[in-house]
């Protein structure tokens, strides 16, 4: 067994643990990051080396879903609600600043970056640039809807 293959499996196991602690399936995670479910599966099994950007996405999603206390699991919907509450608290007066970037093509499709008041950043995926843009608008609408419910 090569040390490179062993390292890939170790990184993959860590990625899987981060995803599971966040309470997400592969499909659930794929809706939050700019990678397909199949690509994420390859990274978690170690059949593909995970680039640093992938690891950053896993850590970001994990940090949003899991409290700071170690080994404590939390329902990801609670993290979403807390994030929405933070947005609402920051904007009791006025409207949130929404930034939508230009859709770009990646390895597994098109991605459209977005940001809401610098608190929420993400990239929505689509099969083409227009679909990625619509996905980003839908994701922004979902986040703002959660903020309004608080």
From TrEMBL:
Question: Domain named HTH cro/C1-type: which ranges?
Answer: 15-52
PROSITE patterns this protein is in? HTH_CROC1
Gene3D superfamilies xrefs: lambda repressor-like DNA-binding domains
**Which CDD domains did the record assign?**
HTH_XRE (cd00093)
Enumerate the SMART domains for this protein: HTH_XRE
Name-wise, this protein is: Helix-turn-helix protein
């Amino acid at each position: 067994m090569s040390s490179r293959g062993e390292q890939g499996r170790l990184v993959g196991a860590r990625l899987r643990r981060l995803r599971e602690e966040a309470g997400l399936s592969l499909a659930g995670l794929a809706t939050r990051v700019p990678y397909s479910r199949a690509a994420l599966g390859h990274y978690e099994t170690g059949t593909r080396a995970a680039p640093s950007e992938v690891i950053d996405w896993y850590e970001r999603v994990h940090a949003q879903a899991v409290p700071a206390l170690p080994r404590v699991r939390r329902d990801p919907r609670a993290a979403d609600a807390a994030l929405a509450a933070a947005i609402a608290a920051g904007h009791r007066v006025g409207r949130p600043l929404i930034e939508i970037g230009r859709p770009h093509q990646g390895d597994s499709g098109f991605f459209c970056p977005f940001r809401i008041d610098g608190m929420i950043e993400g990239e929505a995926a689509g099969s083409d640039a227009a679909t990625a843009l619509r996905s980003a608008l839908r994701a922004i609408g979902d986040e703002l809807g959660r903020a309004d419910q608080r």
